[in-house]
Amino acid sequence: xxxxxxxxxxxxxxxxxxxxxxxxxxxxxxxxxxxxxxxxxxxxxxxxxxxxxxxxxxxxxxxxxxxxxxxxxxxxxxxxxxxxxxxxxxxxxxxxxxxxxxxxxxxxxxxxxxxxxxxxxxxxxxxxxxxxxxxxxxxxxxxxxxxxxxxxxxxxxxxxxxxxxxxxxxxxxx
Length: 174
Known about the structure:
2 domains; 4-stranded antiparallel sheet
């Protein structure tokens, strides 16, 4: 029969064996994860290098760099299917909704008037529109400029300023 010290030594040896086995497993897991990280990094690096070949603003001097040409349909446009293209489409639809909402507000608070004989239009002063629209959006002037560009509204001047242009008449054309 062994003594307590002998039993303790045997248990310590078994614990050491388990600990070293666990360390080996942990080291193997670490090696696998580092290998995976390295592979992921290399994959990203290769994709980025390929992307830079087509980026006209990169400092890549290879002959395969495509420089956009003025006058072509794709000049100044993001790559089709890219996130930039999607963000542009989302922004365009958001702004279009704001312009439509502005036109609805003008219809609701404006006053009908005759223009060019038999044609009726709806008009509103800038101060009145500003008071109503400020609770909807803080981009009234920008939205008005966009609506004027789309020939939905018309008003005098390049820009409208609160206070200075309160009596400017905004006409809804459609």
